[in-house]
TrEMBL record:
The lineage of its organism: Eukaryota, Metazoa, Chordata, Craniata, Vertebrata. It comes from Octodon degus (Degu). This is Dephospho-CoA kinase domain-containing protein. Signal peptide: none annotated. The keyword Transmembrane helix applies. One of its GO terms (biological process) is coenzyme A biosynthetic process.
Amino acid sequence: MFLVGLTGGIASGKSSVLQVFQQLGCAVVDVDIIARRIVQPGRPAHRRIVEVFGTEVLLENGEINRKVLGDLIFKQPDQRQLLNAITHPEIHKEMMKETFKYFLQGHRYVILDIPLLFETKKLLRYMKHTIVVYCDRDTQLARLMKRNGLSLEDAEARIQAQLPLKDKVRMANHVLDNSGNWGDTRRQAILLHLRLERSLEYLPLRLSVLMGLAGITSLLYLLARCLLPSP
């Protein structure tokens, strides 16, 4: 098994591309879903967020108000770093659990949806391949304004707060261009999946594990022979 990091920019279409891979039967670790799960009431990250940011970031049902918290950290970079320090360790634990589950199921590769893959670089070294979902800036702006109901000024501020997509493109192994019609983007994703699925890059880890299991089995056999009473 090998790991594939998927990233993009706000309103670039990353989530839609991720759904295509899921429909193709790919093993996908969606960091956005994990991020929502680890801040549910009763979880350690939820308690810590309330301690640090106060009850004003809560909805009436006790869940985190993502819009309020998002606006808060967007305007205050130091608060964003504080939130990341709370949530990232919990997110990484869940990512490791899900990745190991897919390994046991025999998948050849696992896609990890990591929004800040190139910004933090913490997980980059573990990725055999990296994919960027790209769209041109005008398309990105139009989609973001429509999706979030933002003004042009606010949409531009959100995009500028991220690493530019053109920089991510230069660092990626694969680029899926989502600037045009969706059918073309979907075809790009399918072709890339076929290429990754046919790759033999999954073999080294699988062979290492099999050799390790064979060694453990041999050791257990020898121990059992030693513990058996002599005739």
